[in-house]
Specification:
The structure is a single chain. The chain has one domain (about 5-105): Rieske Iron-sulfur Protein (3-layer Sandwich), CATH 2.102.10. The protein is built from no helices and 13 strands. The protein has strands at about 5, 15-20, 25-30, 35-40, 55, 60, 65-70, 75, 85, 90, 95-100, 100, 105. It is globular, with a radius of gyration of 13 Å.
């Protein structure tokens, strides 16, 4: 699998981008011009959130509709009952850093992981 640096200009307003951070799947979203990051795996049935949607400030899992606050990781819509981890985001020379670690995007990745 090849990767390239994740850049802030590739995260549209109201959109999500799936990234890898030190081997961990994370989703980065832009709301009100600000970037936010949460863990990339739904706590309901462990579906990959790379194919989730962002509705306002809510990341909606495509699998069963669980919703998480992009800013805090709190559950805002069941069936998930456990919050998801959130991480601080910064930008250095256009590249996204999640918790101080450079984020990477997978080149040509279209897969979906579902462990549930």
């Amino acid at each position: 699998m090849s990767t390239r640096p994740a850049t802030a200009d590739k995260v549209p307003e109201g959109g999500l981008v799936g990234v890898l951070v030190d081997g961990r799947q994370v989703v980065v979203g832009r709301v009100g011009g600000r970037l936010y990051a949460i863990d990339g795996t739904c706590t309901h049935q462990y579906a990959d959130l790379e194919h989730a949607t962002l509705s306002g400030e809510t990341v909606v899992c495509h699998f069963h509709g669980s919703g998480f606050d992009i800013r805090t990781g709190a559950v805002v819509c069941p069936p998930a009952s456990k919050p998801i981890a959130s991480f601080p985001v910064s930008v250095d020379d256009g590249c996204i850093l999640v918790d101080g670690i450079p984020a990477q995007v997978r080149v040509g990745y279209t897969g979906l992981r579902d462990n549930g």
